[in-house]
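quick one, 200 residues, struct below
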Amino acid sequence: MFTGIVEELGEVTAVEDLGDASRFRLRGPVVTHGAKHGDSIAVNGVCLTVVELEGDEFTADVMAETLKRSSLGALTVGSPVNLERPMPADGRFGGHVVQGHVDGTGTIEARTPSENWEIVRVSLPAELARYVVEKGSITVDGVSLTVVDAADDHFTVSLIPTTLALTTLGRKQPGDPVNLEVDVIAKYVERLLGTRGASR
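---
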């Protein structure tokens, strides 16, 4: 499990096309420290498995399903990426429950700068709209954020200077894709209520 608190801004150093999958090599001195084969690392909010480690770089395989459902397929050599290791059992819970299972992608629609923060509007796939509520949690490119406004086809978030400086969200421009993971609690509640209602 992750919390959406990005540990470092890493970089893609190689991309290999495997036909029905891709192999990424990524640089991240913080997340590779103490890492080993088989560990999980979230890359722009997508939970990937460490295949190889060499110095401050790690390699991960990404299957076609993940490439289809996320924006990882748009990454190229030199692309910055948000990196986070899973939260340890005795760790501090800084964000919200993030599984690293991307529900879909959105697109940056607009950025409105202010003196001390920035409002970013992101398009929202219709099938995810019911899970996004004002002041609720959402993960955008692996970053745990609070929804400011929620509509049927978009939502907005406010980004503080730290988020702008230390994550990909400070660099994304209108038209750029982002990975979205909605609050898993909302999905569980929907499932439970649906099952309960159907059994009556």
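The radius of gyration is 17 Å.
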